[in-house]
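All the exercises in this workshop are built on plain-text protein records. Instead of coordinates, the fold is spelled out as a row of discrete tokens. Once this layout is familiar, the rest of the handout is easier to follow. The record below serves as our worked example for the rest of this section.
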Amino acid sequence: MYQGFYNLTSGMLTQQRNLNTVSNNMVNIQTPGYKSDRMVSSTFQEEMLYRTGRTDKSRYTELGITSKIRTAQRTYVNYEQGSFNPTGGIYDFALSGNGFFCIDTPDGVRYTRNGSFRVDEEGYLTLNNLGRVQGAGGQPIQISNEDFAVTNGTIYGVDADGTARELGTLRVVDFEGEYQDVMHKEDYGLYSTDAAPREVMQGDTAVIWKTLERSNADMVDEMTSMITSQRALQSAAQMLKMYDQVMNKSANDIGRM
């Protein structure tokens, strides 16, 4: 009887955590470069069930393994590349291939696939007021006016006399190993890591101008997952209520007999 409380309560908590993950994905459907999360659950405190005789307890038969608790094991990030959205915005960039843009934040260098940049009051390329975008060598890129062009991630400004001059090249880096193991997801589409970055060579990853990478979260999949979790949560809540009523009956009514 009591095992049902463990099963149902842990199931409700797990489904609630999954709903939080799915909700976050749905909120970021329109966030450029967003990578969706997937929560994986597992069992906890597995136990072997045995059957023994009524009088002879020395011999027993294994019935199987049971677990009273289900819990969230880990949240995985889906790093697959999203589709491209041509925006025409002169400060919009997308990466085709592996790699990340580098952002100088107050907490240190962070990495992102979100190329929806702007310029600050001093003309430096920034990401949503989170920090300045790094150029080659880790230096910020200053764009004095909107009269510029981009070729393979290198930004060229045009002077008053029509002379083109290089303003900087967007720094794109990658990391050895699986992203799941080396990258830590933070807020606002940023990632941190203790791994050493390596510069991405031209040709391995293309920088696409006036384009943004869409979120790789799919609304249909997220809605399906949300409905499934909601129904599982509601069913567990109803069953838990029934268990409570049965326990109340056994304690109050049967106990007086």
Q: What stands out?
A: DSSP finds three helices and 18 strands in the chain.
